Amino acid sequence: MALFTDIDARISALRDLFGDDVEIDDLSSRMMAFSGDKLVEAVTAVSALVRCVERVGIVGAGITAARSTRQAGRDGLAAGRGHRTPAALVQDITGLTHADAQRQVRIGLSILDSEAAEDAGGHDGASSPSVGTPSAGTSRARVPWHTPLATAMLSGQISVSQQDAIQGGLGHPIDDTDHTHDVWSAAAEQLAAEARERTVEELRIQARAIRDQLDPEGAERRFTERYNRRSFRTWVDADGRECGRIEFEDDGAAWMRAIRDAALRPRRGGPRFVDSAEAKRAEDLTADQRTNDQLSYDLLIDLLRAGALADAKDVFGGRQPGVRVVKVHDGSGVPVSARTEDYGFSVPLASADQRICESGTVNVTVDVRGNPLDVGRESRLFTTAQRVALAIRDGGCRWRGCDRPASYCEAHHIDEWAADDGRTDIERGILLCRHHHMQLHHGGWRITRHGSDDFHLHPPGGKHPVTLRPRVALTAAWAGIDPPPKRFREDAA
């Protein structure tokens, strides 16, 4: 659909919802009268309209930057209007933050680069290979690796924020060979295809995880750089308040998240507690009048006070925090990568080996799709080892659009234990956060799976099921992106 035809269609949909016109002073009262379905329809139509119009602004920001180069000097578009940079001009026009204006310029320029290469007869590679699958290649004229993202954004498949998260997370390819270009492009395509099912924050994490798998040497270097930047400093501000700032390295950040999550998980939507004492502690925490930030601060101070003599149950109840690292081995048993169980952050193998010395290992064997082996109908509840295996396979809540990590999730049997002779094995289990687990049981939803294929979420009322695809970073970790996803456009002639 042509751009302005699409915009007209979106405006027409809004007119159908609101009537011919509405005074701005009546907007709130008019929408308050909407039913739930009509309200969602209106917000969806507005979001689609904003995306349509935003594309014009993004391309305009790119052209503004292209006409404001240093070579143009004072004759450049931005300098000629009294602005030091094109982002400053965009910010002045739009009222955006400086960071958002820079993002518009950055993405606009990437779109222009892709279109210029295509207009010059560039190619995007002979074929789109699996991520991590080696193939020889030599440099040739081609479109930029991020062209699938520009195409997806301009077609409305992904938003500007999603494109920026994916492109920034994947970073720059490690070299200029055809193979590297094609692999990065394949990863961009796959992440763009998954964007509808992931939050922007998780897309960024997934893109970074894939980048570290594609560039292990760079991952090691970035790990070391973050370690060398670790710092903690305090200062007194003008009002006499003692302030502090911490820049974490990866291991410290993982521990801090684990400590915070263990203490605040009941309040932030973590799994329900079976033990009555734990349930009471969770209720007390939920009713606590302190904000989450205040609770986090008090927790940190308590830990500092207690130090090495702290009794874990006094601070955390029955769920002591910890950071579990998963090592991935190839068919011969050689370790090829490692990552944290929660959030899936990449960990250098040397750091993983150090963690093993401290805490040991849990061995989980998986197939090429990341499915752990069947362990049978042993008990009503999933064991600790089974939950680790589910965390490795699912990476967190599998509900579409949810980014809750594995530690916030409960293991759900897709077969009812008594009625369906449900088996407590991982093939028939799936991780869901507490909110979505309760929604499943009380809202008429159900999940099905045929063998080791994808899970399918069936909405109430017989609506079309939704495929709960695995996170793409995990797919790349186990078997790469194979076969490659369908292209957005054919190779240029």
TrEMBL record:
The keyword Nuclease applies. CDD domains: HNHc. Keywords: Endonuclease, Hydrolase, Nuclease. Residues 385-438 form the HNH nuclease domain. Residues 118-141 are annotated as: Disordered. InterPro entries: DUF222, HNH_nuc. One of its GO terms (molecular function) is endonuclease activity. This is Putative HNH endonuclease domain protein. It comes from Microbacterium esteraromaticum. The lineage of its organism: Bacteria, Bacillati, Actinomycetota, Actinomycetes, Micrococcales.
